[in-house]
Design goal:
- By secondary structure, the chain is mainly beta.
- The protein folds into two domains: 17-223, Methylamine Dehydrogenase, Chain H (7 Propeller), CATH 2.130.10.130; 249-317 and 324-340, Immunoglobulin-like (Sandwich), CATH 2.60.40.
- The protein has one helix and 28 strands.
- The protein has one helix at 155-158; strands at 17-23, 26-33, 41-48, 51-59, 70-74, 84-94, 99-108, 114-120, 133-137, 147-152, 161-165, 167-168, 172-173, 179-182, 196-201, 210-215, 218-222, 226-228, 230-232, 238-240, 249-257, 266-267, 277-284, 288-289, 296-297, 308-316, 326-328, 335-340.
- The strands form nine sheets. It has a four-stranded antiparallel beta sheet with strand order 1-2-3-4, with no helix packed on it. Strands 5-6-7-8 form a four-stranded antiparallel beta sheet, with no helix packed on it.
Length: 362
Amino acid sequence: MEIKHNNLKNDSYNGYSVVVGRRDRDSLVFSGAPRSNHRGQVTLFRKMNHKWEVMSTISGEQIGSYFGGSVCVLDLDSDNNTDFLVVGAPMYYKPHPPGEGRVYIYRLTQELKLEKEKELEVFESAQGRFGTTLAAVADLNGDLLQDLAVGAPLEDNQKGAIYIYLGNRDHGIRPQYSQRIVASSISEKLHHFGLAIDGVMDMGQDGLTDIAVGAQGTVVLLNTCFNAAENTNSKGMITWNTGAVKSGLNGTLELKADAVRQYSRAFFSAEDKTSRSLVTSVLLDSEVSCYNHTVFMNSCVKDTVSPVLFRLHFHQSDLQSKSSNSILNIDCKTTTQVEVPFQINCRNTSCVSDLQLDFKFL
């Protein structure tokens, strides 16, 4: 069965990019025509009574942008209903700052209309043709939402790069990419990295989705790392979701005493009263990790009313062991603080002044 838009000319290149979707019982086809009216167009077709009817059309903004050169759909919550349409315009040009390529996110309404949600651009892709390829990839960060991979095969002097965007339940995709993977970080011999992308299967049989990326004359398989969802609580205890992780995560703890004061009342070394900060390298290899540190105080503390504030910050170390397959989830809480009060001898731990003034004339 042939699917046509009668108002499109043959030189519109209708069908240059195609993706299928579904909304309830309706079968959908999204077809890109990047040369339609020189600006590009995407048409949404719905199958009704064995015929395909046009439900919605969207057009590009800029002449020659090749809007509709790539399309993909997002089923964010994997309920077999298409939620968003992603459209690439890889030759969209912006002079200040210079950039080539733009990606559009459209929401699919219940009436099967397409409403623009947001636009994605990157400043690193001056002549990279960002948006040449689009691929919905399985959940990468453990939030149970589909994610998006975008190819820019001409970036970095035609070596190529891909960008990973995490899903967002309300707006489809987060506006800022979570990771940029350049070809030169894999091999200097790669060219046009990002010409094709697919990421729905677990090729390594480790329970994690992997991403296959096409380049000139080769295919690169990118293995996904486990996202460690870490949390620091007010006691300085670190808990994290071990999930499918098979090895630990190397991290750095930074603990600061009396963090909001210019001069600290507490320190971590008996010999050095200026040692208000403590940096420790740790290996997280269990669900709960606890670390004990001794705190020293000045012999004479003038302010015993204000509590001592301890601030703890955790981040992943740049140097990871080769056996580690974990990375720190970008959404996890990495900073916490706790106030430690001084012991006071007041009823109900609440000191209330009871001063009386008495005088007499002499």
